[in-house]
Design a protein that fits this description.
mainly alpha; 4 helices; elongated
Length: about 140
């Protein structure tokens, strides 16, 4: 494991932007280099908090599915991670599966007056999700 990998990527991005970029002559290469530095910054953020953010999403989606199940909707089963299974790849897989289930549920309740409370809960989740995953670049 690389200790403080996110900090290392932030430092590399800063070095590229502060020292390499100003020395480039081609506007295309400057633009490309700036984009690479921003991607390094985004990758650093992902390394630092990506799993934690997705686990928060997973918990929130499972709460929404519990609400939906009480209203008679078929929903995905709750997720139980095995020890050592909370890798970014595995958490992404589960997150993607639950997100697909949430999209399908939202299609059923969006605009249906009998399910207004659940629909509003889904919209609140989506808003919180967008804020949680916004990149600071």
């Amino acid at each position: 494991m690389i200790p403080k990998a996110s900090t290392g990527l932030q430092m590399l991005a800063g070095r590229v932007l502060g020292h390499v970029l100003p020395e480039l002559a081609s506007k295309y290469v400057m633009s490309d280099t700036a984009m690479l530095a921003m991607l390094m910054t985004a990758l650093g953020e992902e390394l630092e908090s990506g799993i934690a953010k997705r686990l928060l999403d997973i918990d929130a989606m499972e709460q929404l599915f519990q609400q939906a199940k009480m209203r008679g909707f078929a929903v995905p089963e709750p997720v139980k991670f095995l020890p050592g299974e909370q890798t970014l790849t595995r958490v992404n897989e589960v997150h993607d599966q639950l997100t697909q289930g949430l999209i399908e549920l939202h299609q059923k309740v969006d605009g249906v007056s009998d399910h207004g409370e659940l629909n509003n809960s889904i919209w609140r989740y989506l808003s919180a999700h967008a804020e949680r995953h916004a990149l600071a670049i």
